[in-house]
Specification:
The chain is α+β, with helices and mostly antiparallel strands and 98 residues long. The chain has two helices and seven strands.
């Protein structure tokens, strides 16, 4: 069950859907459509520059894709291309609503 304390939000242990600070995507090419990412145990969250924050997990689009995306996110290269060519709109959930 979720609990909040003081000014910040803290959640009960074991709950993976808590908000975390996202890491800025390094974008070595300078042309990426991805602004930031968050790596979770069995998922990755991507925030796109043109809007939209999406969860990709081991169920959808699958373990292989998520782990490949994590690698590219950490390297700061190739993530947008990978998402466009291999994953597309096959995300688990959109986390924001415009």
């Amino acid at each position: 069950m979720r609990r909040s304390f003081m000014a910040g939000l803290y959640y009960a242990p074991g709950v993976e859907d808590y908000p975390k600070a996202m890491e800025p995507y390094r974008d070595r090419s300078g042309a990426s459509g991805i602004d930031a990412y968050e790596i979770r145990d069995e998922a990755i969250v991507l925030r796109f520059k043109k809007g939209g924050t999406y969860l990709y997990d081991w169920n959808k689009p699958g373990w292989r894709h998520v782990e490949a995306m994590k690698l590219r996110a950490r390297e700061g290269s190739g993530l947008t291309t990978y998402v466009n060519q291999q994953v597309g709109a096959n995300y688990a959930e959109r986390l924001d609503r415009e």
